[in-house]
């Protein structure tokens, strides 16, 4: 297979950020012929850096939609799991997020890098050490907070009691044993304590329904009580879409409130779904990572050490929100105002 020189250079730079080198084993997990060029480029780049590389290629029986998580071809594949757990680092080209298998691989000490976006998005949002610094600061602040509150002029007012769950940072590379990240990304998040998330979320036009790769067109009001959505209302089609989609899983855990955090990647574009000509090939990392968004989510929480493994995951990045950790202001009307995370415009 002929490799694109730009792709190889970029992936080598990524593996350098991940501190891949002599004496380490890189396992590239792929499915069938999906992302075959990515798999080859990562293995060649690892070899150039003096590491050993192998491709664990599995058969996928079905292709999951963006909002369906934790269902993948590693389930029941003991040989592949043993191989991946013995590696120093795993490149995930399949999509293990919110799965028990991912948690097992991390617990064995392997760091994992998920890579799902096409090359043009990776180039656009490629990680920097400054992004890591700002995301790590967000993680530090979340770890020290007892409450997160976010509001909007549209009527959102949500409160999360914090402390039960860990904080996860995503800045696009990983150089620590057992740590997971996603290339590209740029945010930090945690989850509210069980049963201690309450309030109202008001989705407005311009907010994002990541599972559908589309923008909210009409006002949607989500009522949250004791950590779960108890009502979804609105006059337009968006409320019906969200309600019927979540109901289609026939799983009450789909309505549980999942992770909460904010975006810090100034290279990400909130309007990407409208600007791109390659939306079917793209994932949703622009939407999840754009600077100043509040990433409100529902559904599974295995990634954070919880027990909810529902297949229904809804990421709903919101614009123009304000957010506080205890009494510390982080966002104001969709802009980062905390000095340690704010960028010069």
TrEMBL record:
Keywords assigned: Metal-binding
InterPro entries (UniProt xref): M29_Exopeptidase, NicX
One Gene Ontology MF term: metal ion binding
Matches recorded under Pfam families: NicX
Record flagged with keyword Metal-binding: yes
This protein's name: 2,5-dihydroxypyridine 5,6-dioxygenase
């Amino acid at each position: 297979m002929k490799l694109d020189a730009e792709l190889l250079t970029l992936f080598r730079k990524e593996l350098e950020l991940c501190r891949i080198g002599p004496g380490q084993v890189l396992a590239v997990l792929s499915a069938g012929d999906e992302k075959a060029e990515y798999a080859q480029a990562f293995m060649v780049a690892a070899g150039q850096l003096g590491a050993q590389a192998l491709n664990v290629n599995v058969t996928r029986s079905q292709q999951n939609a963006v909002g369906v998580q934790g269902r993948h071809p590693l389930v029941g594949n003991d040989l592949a799991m043993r191989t991946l757990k013995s590696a120093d680092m795993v490149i995930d080209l399949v999509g293990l997020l919110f799965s028990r298998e991912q948690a097992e691989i991390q617990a064995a000490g392997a760091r994992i890098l998920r890579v799902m976006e096409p090359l043009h998005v990776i180039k656009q949002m490629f990680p920097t050490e400054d992004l890591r610094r700002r995301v790590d600061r967000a993680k530090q602040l979340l770890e020290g907070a007892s409450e997160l509150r976010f509001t909007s002029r549209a009527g959102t007012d949500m409160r999360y009691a914090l402390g039960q769950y860990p904080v996860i940072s995503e800045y696009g590379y990983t150089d620590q044993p057992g740590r997971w990240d996603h290339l590209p990304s740029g945010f930090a998040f945690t989850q509210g304590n069980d049963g201690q998330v309450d309030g109202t979320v008001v989705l407005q036009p311009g907010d994002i329904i990541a599972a559908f790769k589309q923008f909210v067109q009409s006002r949607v009001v989500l009522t949250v009580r004791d950590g779960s959505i108890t009502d979804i209302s609105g006059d337009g089609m968006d409320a019906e879409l969200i309600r019927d989609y979540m109901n289609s899983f026939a799983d009450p855990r789909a309505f549980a409130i999942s992770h909460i955090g904010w975006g810090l990647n100034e290279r990400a574009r909130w309007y990407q779904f409208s600007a791109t000509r390659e939306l079917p090939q793209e994932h949703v990392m622009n939407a999840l990572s754009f600077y100043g968004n509040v990433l409100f989510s529902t559904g599974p929480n295995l990634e954070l050490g919880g027990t909810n493994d529902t297949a229904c995951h809804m990421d709903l990045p919101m614009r123009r929100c304000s957010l506080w950790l205890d009494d510390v202001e982080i966002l104001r009307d969709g802009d980062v105002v905390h000095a340690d995370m704010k960028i010069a415009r």
